[in-house]
Amino acid sequence: MSQKEWVPEVTLEAMRRISAHAEKVGPTNTDEFTFRAFFMAAAYDAAEGQGLEKTLRFQTEWHRFDLLVQLADVPMLIEFKYYVIRRTLDLDGKRRDFKGGPGPQNLSEFHAALRGLRAGDLYGVSQHRLIVVYLRDDALPKGQSWHKTFGGLQPDFSIAQVWQCASGPFEARILEPTNPLPPGSSPGALTTP
Q: What is the number of domains present in the chain?
């Protein structure tokens, strides 16, 4: 776990853990909070492996952010977006509507998270990451999918760097937002495919 860029390594380990969990409970029965817990456990294990565990601190729901991580007194804000398309079934097995797909509300929440992290130095924290996890082969009947939405993400005016990792049925994109966000600008141009 290097202090410079440890998030992709930890994200991959968290994805291995959520994949193993999904084998037991099903991928659609996993969620962002479980992934965040696996991420923190993986970060602790990586820090412990290098004798850095005493320098590692977590705070969930810190101000308006999902996670504040402090490693060797270097703070980082992390937002998580976890997308799984689910279909509700009645008790008799009758299929109902889908939820969690790449629609306007979920994309708006993604853009808001990216915009929030691009605001510059937040509460004295200048390191920010947005971790997007989704089921790779998830798709709605009309072909909309999270992989079509996020699979090709590349650096642009709102994203300085993109790391990719995968484990089992899950994909992740770790985004380092550019800073700061110019007043009145948009965080990017992702739309529903």
A: 1
